């Protein structure tokens, strides 16, 4: 079967590889859609930590069941995948937090993923389509990241939720903040993306950190209180360090975005707020289920996200262009028949 292999940074090659054989506890799926995310782009660039080559990328998947040894799925069923292979025995897994398993293996990151015709996956990680389209199914995983961050924050009705970073992850976070009843404020340095928030996601408040006085705007919007929930979805150290001052007293600050450096903040400022700082890693089945239900109920429109589509045999030619913000890419989607 055909697979697209990232042989080393900057190089994607179509190879013929052996088709997977059915093993106990596994299901063989035929890939229908593959969403491209920042992780794939960084792996291609060679800037993704903990990454080894060669690797078959692709973890945002919609697929059809080909063969399975379980009776929970039938051949021909459409499915999506929770791409996080957790160990099931570590402290996180034992506490129902398999999303932050100490031995996490992400499909398409630590082990080969979905840029191939067929893929063998643990059956327990598959979720039924529930009437969703293949495009919708491939968007479930990236949206679940935001849903998880909002669940971590415990957003309540009417709260001001500042989401910093309006990339695919931040946009999904904004949607689930709204679904939780929050009043969303989007902060970015890219006006095109802020316009997207206003036009497509109907986010009421947008702030451009390059041209606006962020603190003044936040005070205006929140009647002087400042946001009680602040979420980073930039992965920018500068944005994260700045964001501590945007928190209301008693606020929660959730880091969905990830960067490599040390975060530093003023302790007395943090103390006087009695603030809470949390990280948010991957997503749980509860988050995946919430995304699927929200899509079914038309609370999230996948058409807003998919800005680029390409056939599987054209991916190698187009991949590098998705690294360029000027292409206006939010979500590039690979189509297989
Ligand atoms: N929690 C998880 O498990 C998880 C999963 C996937 C991705 N992520 C992380 O989420 C982050 C966002 O991912 P993405 O794919 O949406 O990235 P992206 O690069 O597409 O979007 C980031 C956005 O942040 C904006 N930004 C950058 N610096 C800024 C600043 N100083 N102030 C305001 N805005 C700024 C950019 O303009 C951009 O729109 C990344 O750090 C990624 O690693 C986390
Ligand atoms: Zn992803
Ligand atoms: Zn574990």
From TrEMBL:
SUPFAM superfamilies: GroES-like, NAD(P)-binding Rossmann-fold domains. It comes from the Bacteria. Residues 24-129 form the Alcohol dehydrogenase-like N-terminal domain. Residues 168-295 form the Alcohol dehydrogenase-like C-terminal domain. Keywords: Oxidoreductase. One of its GO terms (molecular function) is oxidoreductase activity. PANTHER family: L-GALACTONATE-5-DEHYDROGENASE, L-THREONINE 3-DEHYDROGENASE. This is Zinc-binding alcohol dehydrogenase family protein. It comes from Mucilaginibacter myungsuensis. The lineage of its organism: Bacteria, Pseudomonadati, Bacteroidota, Sphingobacteriia, Sphingobacteriales.
